[in-house]
Amino acid sequence: MDQTQEVLAAEAVRTPTQQVANAQLHPVGRLASPGSQGVKCMPTPAQAAFATRRALKVGGAVFFVVVFALALIGAPRPIFDEKETKANLMSALFLVGLVLVVLEDHVGVNKSAIMLMVSATMWTFLAVGFHPHESHENHEALKEKFDDGLKEVGAIILFLLPAMGVVESIDHFEGFAVVTRFILKVTGGRTEPLMPILCLITFFLSAIIDNLTATIVSLKLLRHVAGGDRHLRHAIGGLVVIAANAGGAWSPVGDVTTTMLWLADKISVFQTIIWLFLPSMVAGISPMVGIWWELKRHERQNEAAERKRIEEDAVDGENPSSRTTRTEATEDSFKVSPALPEITRAKALVLVLGIICIFMVPVLKMVVGLPPYLGMLLALGILWFVTDTAAFHSLAHLPKD
User: Fold this and answer.
1) Radius of gyration in angstroms for the set of CA atoms belonging to the chain, rounded to a whole number
2) How many CB atoms within 10 Å of residue 390?
3) Residue-level pLDDT at 386
4) Which of 126, 119, 114, 144 is nearest to 71 (CA)?
5) CB–CB of 182/351 below 8 Å?
6) Euclidean distance between CA atoms 95 and 87, whole angstroms
7) Strand pairing partners for 40?
8) What sign for the dihedral angle of Cα 7, 9, 14, 20?
9) Predicted confidence (pLDDT) per residue in 256-273, tens digit
10) What DSSP element (H or E) covers 77?
11) Which run of H or E residues covers position 268?
12) CA 190/CA 394 separation, integer angstroms
């Protein structure tokens, strides 16, 4: 009690300056004194955003837990037996998970963790609807449903993993250095043609490999050819993402969605290319034209402002040599001059062989009916075999085992 009284006495004798400083350090949640009519300080935008993120995470997790708990106890039974009710609840599960995935950067939870929770909850809820413990027929029906789902998902995974392995092998042996050198030779150190060239390369590259891998490869190329200009990298990087998504839409192997449809024999190669190439091209090029024009306008404004400053300095009697130096710096401000990467026969061989192996997948599917995931596994095996031979090690000047 004596310590409590001492603390209260110290609080009472604090100076107004100390009280104001304490209020500034703890503005939220501190009740005002009786003389301030009980007014409470408003939360800052950062605190409001934090509260919103926490509410989204907690709300989504509670919803998943409630549905999972209902599935475990199997009650109320109508939500598992009525098709419309079951479909609505599973759609709500998917919608909540999709919202959390879209807001991943704001929520602060990895989308993979969210979708794992969503998929497990949906499959549990679906399994209870079969009532597998009531009869052998229900158990067999559930087993068949799981087998179908495993076959579809397994086919996609077995396709994507070797596809990423092929691309990573090309990158490991620096096969994309050929593309980097081509870009640098064509642009000649100028950034004006860099945007359309890199976006077009990404557009067609994402049709061969998946759009995510094409984005990663193109951003690596962008960092090498324009590593010193952050503003330019951000502008072209956004267009690279757009071009990769647009380019992956018109190819059966360019996007996970089209790959799933192709594996399920819902679409054909030629019809997909014929009907979707032009819309994909428009979707990929239209944003590039607008942003390219905006960058050119910004460049002209900077050059005009620099010329005006030079004229003002000339009127003020500045040294002409310094004006010349500044003019040259302005003219070179939109140039990039990284060193050209060395091209060897091994790098060119890996790039060409990798592209041929990827193109071989749809050909085998159309000619002999080989499933795409087996074709991609074969492509990875061929590239792996070639790069493991002693002849390739000698060509690439790699150390022998």
Assistant:
1) 31
2) 10
3) 92
4) 126
5) no
6) 12
7) 31
8) positive
9) 788 878 877 888 888 888
10) none
11) none
12) 37
What are 137's two structure tokens? 């027929």
Give me 257's structure tokens. Answer: 């969605």
Q: Which residues contact 370 (CB under 8 A, 6 or more apart)?
A: 364
Lookup: tokens for 74:
């199997």
Residue 291 pLDDT class (50, 70, 90 cuts): confident
Q: Tell me the DSSP string of 79-115.
A: HHH-HHHHHHHHHHHHHHHHHHHHTHHHHTS-HHHHH
CA distances from 100 to 53, 76, 96, 121, 169 (A): 10, 27, 6, 15, 34
Instruction: Report angle CA 230, 232, 237 to the nearest 5 degrees.
Output: 95
Position 223 pLDDT exceeds 90 = no
If we measure between CA atoms, which residue out of 361, 336, 387 comes closest to residue 174?
A: 387
Place of tokens 């951000």: 234
pLDDT band at 11 (very low <50, low <70, confident <90, very high): very low
* pLDDT band per the 50, 70, 90 thresholds, residue 338: low
The string of pLDDT tens digits covering residues 62-100 is 888 888 888 888 778 788 888 888 888 888 989 988 888
Q: What is the pLDDT of residue 128?
A: 86
Handedness of CA 325, 329, 331, 336 (dihedral sign): positive
What's the CA gap between 150 and 141, in Å, rounded?
Answer: 14
- The token pair at 41 is 């300080």
Asked if 364 contacts 370 with a C-beta cutoff of 8 angstroms, the reply is: yes
Q: DSSP letter at 138? A: H
